[in-house]
Amino acid sequence: MKNLNMNRLSLGMNIDQVSNLLGKNYVISKKEIINQDTLEIISYRGYPNDDEVYLFTFKNEKLEKWEREFIPKYRVVEQK
Prior knowledge:
18% of the residues lie in helices and 42% in strands. The protein contains 2 helices and 4 strands. Strands 1-2-3-4 form a 4-stranded antiparallel sheet, with no helix packed on it. A hairpin with a 2-residue loop joins strand 3 and strand 4.
């Protein structure tokens, strides 16, 4: 179901439309004004998979782009 909701995203949506599809469990990662444009980035960690972070960039309250980043997995090596 989560992957299906990702397929329903489209550029130009506002934050409420995105969060209605993906849930309210997001974090505001960045907010700034550049050349009279308001930029806001929200992120979802572990959506739809545990090792992923999705970043959504809104310019003047409209979704301009989104991207996926993978969370690195570290392995602890025991020393003898």
